[in-house]
Design a protein that fits this description.
Length: 115
């Protein structure tokens, strides 16, 4: 009888752990998708900025206008890249914390000793 209770207990624990792992995998997939979208959005914004700069540079009437345009473009790009880096880092941080949460809740904070 004792073996049966132990087997039922382990089966229940295994099912709970499998559900926690599945929850963690789902959260990781969602978070990874969000990170991908942030990177794609940043890439698209950078490409758009490059084409805008090229279009404006071709229309520059003097060297001084081109230098001013280049300076403005560089400043905007640095600001935009800083903001993009923050957004991507935030998404990566969320991915890490959200994907591990189901494991810590489902399995508990202390690892079980295998017997």
């Amino acid at each position: 009888m004792d073996d049966r209770k132990t087997a039922e207990k382990r089966a229940s624990e295994t099912a709970r752990e499998a559900a926690a792992i599945q929850g963690s995998s789902s959260k990781a997939a969602e978070g990874f998708r969000e990170c991908q979208l942030k990177v794609l959005s940043a890439t698209q914004a950078n490409i758009d900025a490059i084409f805008e700069y090229a279009r404006d540079a071709v229309q520059a009437q003097s060297v001084s206008e081109l230098v001013e345009l280049s300076t403005t473009h560089s400043r905007r790009q640095l600001e935009m890249m800083g903001e993009q880096a923050k957004e991507i880092a935030s998404a990566a941080q969320k991915l890490a914390t959200e994907s591990i949460r189901p494991l810590t809740i489902g399995l508990g904070n202390q690892p079980r000793q295998m017997s």
